[in-house]
Amino acid sequence: MRPILFSIGSLQVPAYGAALMAAFLFAIFWTAWKAPTRGTTADHLYNLGFIAVGGGIIGGRLEYVRTHWHDKFAHDLGRIVEIWDGGLVFYGGFVLGMAGAVAWSHWRKQSVLGVFELAGISIPIAIGITRLGCFGAGCCYGEIADVAWAVSYPLESQLAPGDIPLHPTPLYETAYTWAIALVVWLYSKSPLWRREGEGLFLFVVLYAIARSINETFRADAERGYMIEGVLTNGQGTSLILVVLAVVAWRWVRRLPPRVIPPTAG
Known about the structure:
Blueprint: E1 4-8, E2 11-14, H1 15-34, H2 42-67, H3 69-73, H4 90-107, H5 112-137, H6 169-188, H7 198-215, E3 225-227, E4 231-232, H8 233-253
Antiparallel strand pairs: 1-2, 3-4
Helix pairs in contact: 1-2, 1-5, 2-4, 5-6, 5-7, 6-7, 7-8
Protein backbone atom coordinates (compact mmCIF):
# COMPACT_ATOMS: atom_id res chain seq x y z
CA MET A 1 0.00 0.00 0.00
CA ARG A 2 1.34 3.42 -0.97
CA PRO A 3 -1.38 6.09 -0.85
CA ILE A 4 1.23 8.84 -1.41
CA LEU A 5 3.34 7.87 -4.40
CA PHE A 6 6.02 10.48 -3.76
CA SER A 7 6.52 13.95 -2.30
CA ILE A 8 8.23 17.05 -3.65
CA GLY A 9 8.77 19.28 -0.65
CA SER A 10 5.34 19.88 0.83
CA LEU A 11 3.61 18.66 -2.34
CA GLN A 12 2.29 15.11 -2.03
CA VAL A 13 1.38 13.15 -5.14
CA PRO A 14 -1.28 10.49 -4.35
CA ALA A 15 -0.97 7.09 -6.01
CA TYR A 16 -4.55 7.14 -7.23
CA GLY A 17 -4.26 10.62 -8.71
CA ALA A 18 -1.02 9.75 -10.48
CA ALA A 19 -2.48 6.53 -11.88
CA LEU A 20 -5.62 8.34 -13.03
CA MET A 21 -3.55 10.98 -14.82
CA ALA A 22 -1.36 8.32 -16.43
CA ALA A 23 -4.45 6.44 -17.60
CA PHE A 24 -6.01 9.53 -19.16
CA LEU A 25 -2.79 10.51 -20.92
CA PHE A 26 -2.26 7.01 -22.26
CA ALA A 27 -5.80 6.80 -23.62
CA ILE A 28 -5.55 10.21 -25.32
CA PHE A 29 -2.09 9.87 -26.85
CA TRP A 30 -2.41 6.22 -27.91
CA THR A 31 -5.78 6.83 -29.55
CA ALA A 32 -4.46 9.96 -31.29
CA TRP A 33 -1.45 7.99 -32.52
CA LYS A 34 -3.73 5.35 -34.03
CA ALA A 35 -6.22 7.89 -35.41
CA PRO A 36 -5.01 7.74 -39.06
CA THR A 37 -5.76 4.01 -39.17
CA ARG A 38 -9.43 4.89 -38.65
CA GLY A 39 -9.67 7.67 -41.20
CA THR A 40 -9.41 10.60 -38.84
CA THR A 41 -6.66 12.92 -37.59
CA ALA A 42 -4.59 13.10 -34.45
CA ASP A 43 -5.74 16.69 -33.88
CA HIS A 44 -9.36 15.57 -33.86
CA LEU A 45 -8.54 12.82 -31.39
CA TYR A 46 -6.62 15.16 -29.10
CA ASN A 47 -9.58 17.54 -28.93
CA LEU A 48 -12.04 14.69 -28.55
CA GLY A 49 -9.87 13.02 -25.93
CA PHE A 50 -9.79 16.03 -23.65
CA ILE A 51 -13.56 16.47 -24.05
CA ALA A 52 -14.08 12.80 -23.20
CA VAL A 53 -11.77 13.06 -20.19
CA GLY A 54 -13.62 16.13 -18.94
CA GLY A 55 -16.94 14.37 -19.40
CA GLY A 56 -15.51 11.27 -17.76
CA ILE A 57 -14.42 13.14 -14.65
CA ILE A 58 -17.74 14.99 -14.35
CA GLY A 59 -19.79 11.86 -15.03
CA GLY A 60 -17.72 9.74 -12.68
CA ARG A 61 -18.12 12.31 -9.92
CA LEU A 62 -21.85 12.76 -10.45
CA GLU A 63 -22.44 9.02 -10.23
CA TYR A 64 -20.36 8.84 -7.06
CA VAL A 65 -22.36 11.71 -5.55
CA ARG A 66 -25.63 10.02 -6.58
CA THR A 67 -24.70 6.74 -4.91
CA HIS A 68 -23.33 8.40 -1.75
CA TRP A 69 -25.69 11.34 -1.44
CA HIS A 70 -27.17 10.58 1.96
CA ASP A 71 -24.02 9.47 3.77
CA LYS A 72 -21.55 12.02 2.36
CA PHE A 73 -23.09 14.96 0.55
CA ALA A 74 -26.64 15.70 1.67
CA HIS A 75 -25.47 17.74 4.65
CA ASP A 76 -22.23 19.09 3.17
CA LEU A 77 -22.65 20.18 -0.45
CA GLY A 78 -19.14 21.62 -0.52
CA ARG A 79 -17.72 18.11 -0.55
CA ILE A 80 -19.14 17.52 -4.03
CA VAL A 81 -16.27 19.43 -5.63
CA GLU A 82 -13.58 17.89 -3.41
CA ILE A 83 -12.60 15.46 -6.12
CA TRP A 84 -8.99 15.39 -4.93
CA ASP A 85 -10.12 13.26 -2.00
CA GLY A 86 -11.23 10.53 -4.41
CA GLY A 87 -14.65 9.40 -5.48
CA LEU A 88 -15.13 8.60 -9.16
CA VAL A 89 -17.33 5.83 -10.54
CA PHE A 90 -16.12 4.35 -13.83
CA TYR A 91 -19.55 3.71 -15.34
CA GLY A 92 -20.69 7.30 -14.78
CA GLY A 93 -17.51 8.58 -16.38
CA PHE A 94 -17.79 6.12 -19.26
CA VAL A 95 -21.34 7.14 -20.16
CA LEU A 96 -20.76 10.90 -20.06
CA GLY A 97 -17.33 10.60 -21.66
CA MET A 98 -18.73 8.61 -24.58
CA ALA A 99 -21.61 11.09 -24.91
CA GLY A 100 -19.08 13.89 -25.20
CA ALA A 101 -17.14 11.94 -27.83
CA VAL A 102 -20.28 11.35 -29.89
CA ALA A 103 -21.33 15.01 -29.68
CA TRP A 104 -17.89 16.31 -30.63
CA SER A 105 -17.48 13.86 -33.52
CA HIS A 106 -20.94 14.72 -34.85
CA TRP A 107 -20.20 18.46 -34.68
CA ARG A 108 -16.87 17.97 -36.47
CA LYS A 109 -18.47 15.59 -38.99
CA GLN A 110 -16.06 12.78 -38.09
CA SER A 111 -16.85 9.08 -37.78
CA VAL A 112 -17.49 8.22 -34.14
CA LEU A 113 -17.41 4.49 -34.89
CA GLY A 114 -13.74 4.70 -35.79
CA VAL A 115 -13.11 6.33 -32.41
CA PHE A 116 -15.18 3.63 -30.71
CA GLU A 117 -13.04 0.96 -32.33
CA LEU A 118 -9.88 2.46 -30.84
CA ALA A 119 -11.58 3.07 -27.49
CA GLY A 120 -12.33 -0.64 -27.22
CA ILE A 121 -8.61 -1.16 -26.66
CA SER A 122 -7.47 2.06 -24.98
CA ILE A 123 -10.20 2.19 -22.33
CA PRO A 124 -9.58 -1.24 -20.75
CA ILE A 125 -5.83 -0.56 -20.64
CA ALA A 126 -6.53 2.79 -18.97
CA ILE A 127 -8.85 1.15 -16.43
CA GLY A 128 -6.11 -1.32 -15.55
CA ILE A 129 -3.66 1.52 -14.93
CA THR A 130 -6.17 3.32 -12.72
CA ARG A 131 -6.80 0.22 -10.63
CA LEU A 132 -3.09 0.07 -9.81
CA GLY A 133 -3.66 3.43 -8.15
CA CYS A 134 -6.67 2.01 -6.29
CA PHE A 135 -4.49 -0.79 -4.99
CA GLY A 136 -1.88 1.67 -3.79
CA ALA A 137 -4.49 3.86 -2.11
CA GLY A 138 -6.19 0.93 -0.39
CA CYS A 139 -9.64 1.49 -1.87
CA CYS A 140 -11.90 -0.99 -3.69
CA TYR A 141 -10.49 -3.75 -1.50
CA GLY A 142 -11.74 -7.32 -1.41
CA GLU A 143 -13.31 -9.76 1.01
CA ILE A 144 -11.27 -11.74 3.53
CA ALA A 145 -9.39 -14.36 1.53
CA ASP A 146 -7.70 -17.68 2.25
CA VAL A 147 -5.65 -17.83 -0.92
CA ALA A 148 -1.92 -17.71 -1.58
CA TRP A 149 -2.13 -14.35 -3.34
CA ALA A 150 -4.13 -12.56 -0.62
CA VAL A 151 -2.79 -9.16 0.42
CA SER A 152 -2.75 -7.45 3.81
CA TYR A 153 -2.85 -3.69 4.26
CA PRO A 154 -1.01 -2.01 7.17
CA LEU A 155 -2.88 -1.29 10.37
CA GLU A 156 -2.71 2.45 9.72
CA SER A 157 -4.69 2.05 6.49
CA GLN A 158 -7.49 4.62 6.35
CA LEU A 159 -9.60 2.74 3.81
CA ALA A 160 -8.97 -1.01 3.82
CA PRO A 161 -9.01 -3.01 7.08
CA GLY A 162 -5.46 -3.53 8.28
CA ASP A 163 -3.50 -6.73 8.88
CA ILE A 164 -6.18 -9.00 7.38
CA PRO A 165 -5.67 -11.14 4.24
CA LEU A 166 -7.94 -9.80 1.50
CA HIS A 167 -8.66 -10.49 -2.15
CA PRO A 168 -6.62 -7.97 -4.21
CA THR A 169 -9.68 -7.00 -6.26
CA PRO A 170 -8.05 -3.92 -7.85
CA LEU A 171 -5.31 -6.18 -9.21
CA TYR A 172 -7.94 -8.63 -10.45
CA GLU A 173 -9.47 -5.77 -12.41
CA THR A 174 -6.12 -4.73 -13.84
CA ALA A 175 -5.54 -8.30 -15.00
CA TYR A 176 -8.91 -8.82 -16.65
CA THR A 177 -9.09 -5.40 -18.28
CA TRP A 178 -5.71 -5.88 -19.90
CA ALA A 179 -6.81 -9.35 -21.00
CA ILE A 180 -9.97 -7.79 -22.49
CA ALA A 181 -7.86 -5.28 -24.42
CA LEU A 182 -5.93 -8.20 -25.92
CA VAL A 183 -9.15 -10.04 -26.82
CA VAL A 184 -10.59 -6.92 -28.50
CA TRP A 185 -7.39 -6.45 -30.51
CA LEU A 186 -7.38 -10.11 -31.60
CA TYR A 187 -11.06 -9.87 -32.52
CA SER A 188 -10.38 -6.80 -34.69
CA LYS A 189 -7.86 -8.88 -36.66
CA SER A 190 -10.13 -11.89 -37.05
CA PRO A 191 -12.67 -12.77 -39.77
CA LEU A 192 -15.45 -12.26 -37.19
CA TRP A 193 -14.93 -8.48 -37.22
CA ARG A 194 -17.14 -6.66 -39.72
CA ARG A 195 -17.64 -3.00 -38.84
CA GLU A 196 -15.93 -0.20 -36.94
CA GLY A 197 -17.27 0.26 -33.45
CA GLU A 198 -17.53 -3.44 -32.66
CA GLY A 199 -14.41 -3.18 -30.50
CA LEU A 200 -16.08 -0.88 -28.01
CA PHE A 201 -19.22 -2.99 -27.74
CA LEU A 202 -17.18 -6.16 -27.26
CA PHE A 203 -15.24 -4.41 -24.49
CA VAL A 204 -18.46 -3.30 -22.76
CA VAL A 205 -19.91 -6.82 -22.78
CA LEU A 206 -16.72 -8.50 -21.55
CA TYR A 207 -16.00 -5.82 -18.96
CA ALA A 208 -19.54 -5.89 -17.59
CA ILE A 209 -19.38 -9.66 -17.11
CA ALA A 210 -15.93 -9.58 -15.51
CA ARG A 211 -16.83 -6.57 -13.34
CA SER A 212 -19.97 -8.30 -12.06
CA ILE A 213 -17.91 -11.33 -11.05
CA ASN A 214 -15.23 -9.20 -9.40
CA GLU A 215 -17.91 -7.39 -7.40
CA THR A 216 -18.62 -10.64 -5.56
CA PHE A 217 -15.09 -10.52 -4.13
CA ARG A 218 -15.24 -6.87 -3.05
CA ALA A 219 -15.94 -5.83 0.51
CA ASP A 220 -15.72 -2.04 0.43
CA ALA A 221 -18.90 -0.14 1.19
CA GLU A 222 -18.04 2.44 -1.49
CA ARG A 223 -19.65 0.36 -4.22
CA GLY A 224 -23.20 0.72 -2.87
CA TYR A 225 -26.23 -1.36 -3.82
CA MET A 226 -28.93 -0.99 -6.46
CA ILE A 227 -30.91 -3.71 -4.66
CA GLU A 228 -29.72 -3.82 -1.06
CA GLY A 229 -27.70 -6.95 -0.33
CA VAL A 230 -28.50 -8.49 -3.71
CA LEU A 231 -27.31 -6.36 -6.62
CA THR A 232 -24.51 -3.82 -6.34
CA ASN A 233 -24.55 -0.58 -8.31
CA GLY A 234 -21.76 -1.95 -10.47
CA GLN A 235 -23.61 -5.17 -11.23
CA GLY A 236 -26.88 -3.40 -11.98
CA THR A 237 -25.21 -0.92 -14.30
CA SER A 238 -23.30 -3.76 -15.95
CA LEU A 239 -26.56 -5.52 -16.75
CA ILE A 240 -28.04 -2.40 -18.33
CA LEU A 241 -24.92 -1.69 -20.40
CA VAL A 242 -24.70 -5.27 -21.67
CA VAL A 243 -28.21 -4.99 -23.09
CA LEU A 244 -27.47 -1.61 -24.70
CA ALA A 245 -24.13 -2.79 -26.07
CA VAL A 246 -25.64 -5.91 -27.66
CA VAL A 247 -28.38 -3.85 -29.32
CA ALA A 248 -25.85 -1.29 -30.61
CA TRP A 249 -23.52 -4.07 -31.75
CA ARG A 250 -26.25 -5.70 -33.83
CA TRP A 251 -27.12 -2.34 -35.37
CA VAL A 252 -23.50 -1.56 -36.27
CA ARG A 253 -22.99 -4.94 -37.94
CA ARG A 254 -25.84 -4.10 -40.33
CA LEU A 255 -24.23 -0.87 -41.50
CA PRO A 256 -22.44 -0.71 -44.85
CA PRO A 257 -18.64 -0.80 -44.52
CA ARG A 258 -16.94 2.60 -44.37
CA VAL A 259 -14.17 3.18 -46.88
CA ILE A 260 -11.13 4.65 -45.15
CA PRO A 261 -9.03 6.84 -47.46
CA PRO A 262 -5.67 5.23 -48.36
CA THR A 263 -3.82 8.36 -47.15
CA ALA A 264 -5.17 7.68 -43.65
CA GLY A 265 -2.97 4.62 -43.27
